[in-house]
Specification:
By secondary structure, the protein is of the alpha+beta class. It has 19 helices and eleven strands. The protein is globular.
Length: 414
């Protein structure tokens, strides 16, 4: 690692968590391929859009964190390895085998069939909010919406939604509580183990009593010798459960804040609701929930913009920096719902492009559209700089709480 590496601690500050985009701009301009040092591993951050696209499709940058070098343990520690040996951390052909089975869950027919259920969940959540004139939108709307949708899709019984949500939120909010680091790690480990045991038991129950849901389909793929082991079924279920709600929940929160702090754009969207699909893409570009793509490992020495990345180094593609690249987006730090925004990489790029993109877009369009329709005069209940965000060390960009006010009304839908 070069002596000019940036200490990782510089990216773990409260200031960075509140607004990382000035730091991203400096990196793009001065060090677009930036070495970063930390006690556990060396890494390199890639921040320009052209380089990001190239890196996300570079076969020399492996997603297999379980191969030689024990990279998964180096990066994440051993606690959740049993839950994370899935297609996210695999290269072709292994990735192709796992994704082929899972892709059936997100076939257009299955996703479209969920539309009435998504609308029903959105309205049910807002029915509880509308009469009061104030709400905490993360806990009362943004988090439960995608969690309920993905649980329905997977086949998690409604009676189990509450404990599953509890375990995932302990994992999501790691580092944000008043617990000591040791107590926080212990709480996360316990939540991971309980979730793993629950999912393993649910898989066993689906084998005995299958239904028209994704877990049953995965079990069937396992039992019909399609190359999916029972451990992979459990790990894949965890991936779909967590990825299927975490990023959507954080996106809904980030998008709401972006609109409320850009009143001209909020007014435009209210006046022209037909802009909603394009607005969702621009909001994702503007402040996405996954700032850095999941890590890649250099399997050989590679070079980007004259910077040598040694074999065995961790490479982080900074999606949110690339999505603000002025070489591709005019005035990139301005929210512009009429921008068009189709060239962002908020859903990834290459073979690891988000599998649930259609479902995520549907949830976002119905969620944001109905929220604006049913909560008139929606506004933040605190100053924007007083919002509590996930810690900067989190792999996600999102809010712990989103207090809002609006004009109280009846539970009747407009």
């Amino acid at each position: 690692m070069t002596e000019h590496a940036v200490p990782a601690a510089e990216f773990y500050t409260d200031e960075f968590a509140a607004d990382p985009y000035p730091a991203y701009a400096r990196l793009r301009e001065e060090r677009p391929v930036c070495p970063v040092s930390s006690p556990r591993f060396d890494s390199y951050l890639i921040t320009r859009l052209d380089d990001a696209r190239a890196a996300l499709t570079d076969p020399r940058l492996s997603k297999d964190l379980y191969g030689p070098g024990d990279h998964y343990v180096r990066i994440f520690g051993p606690n959740s390895a049993a839950l994370n040996k899935n297609m996210l951390n695999a290269d072709p052909p292994e990735h192709s085998r796992l994704r082929r089975v899972v892709s059936q869950a997100f076939a257009p027919r299955r996703v479209e069939a969920l539309r009435p259920r998504v609308a029903e969940i959105v309205d049910a959540l807002l029915d509880k909010i509308v009469p009061h004139g104030r709400a905490e939108l993360m806990g009362e709307f943004a988090i439960p919406l995608p969690m309920m949708v993905i649980c329905d899709l997977l086949g998690v019984p409604e009676t189990d939604h509450e404990p599953v949500l509890g375990w995932t939120q302990v994992i999501r909010t790691s580092g944000s509580s008043d617990r000591s680091p040791e107590a926080d790690r212990a709480a996360v480990q316990q939540a991971q183990l309980r979730l793993r045991d629950y999912l393993a038991d649910l898989v066993r129950r689906k084998r005995v009593n299958p239904a028209d849901d994704v877990i049953s389909a995965l079990v069937d793929a396992c039992d019909n010798d399609e190359g999916l082991s029972e451990a992979e079924v459990v790990a894949t279920t965890f991936l779909l459960l967590f990825a299927g709600h975490q990023t959507t929940a954080d996106f809904l929160g980030n998008a709401t804040v972006a609109l409320l702090t850009n009143p001209d754009q909020l007014k435009l969207l209210r006046a022209r609701p037909e802009l909603l699909p394009a607005a969702i893409e621009e909001l994702l570009r503007f402040d996405g929930p996954l700032p850095v793509a999941s890590p890649r490992i250099a399997t050989e020495d590679v070079e980007y913009r004259g910077v040598r990345i040694p074999r065995g180094s961790v490479v982080g593609v900074v999606i949110n920096a690339a999505n603000h690249d002025p070489a591709h987006f005019a005035d990139p730090d301005r929210l512009d719902l009429e921008r068009g925004g189709g060239s962002h990489i908020g859903f990834g790029h290459g073979v690891h492009h988000c599998l649930g993109v259609s479902l995520a877009r549907m949830e976002a369009r119905i969620g944001i559209g109905t929220l604006l329709d049913r909560l008139p005069e929606l506004r933040l209940a605190v100053a924007a700089d007083e919002l509590h965000r996930l810690p900067a060390a989190s792999p996600f960009r999102g809010l712990l709480e989103l207090p809002v006010r609006f004009t109280a009304g009846t539970t009747e839908r407009s």
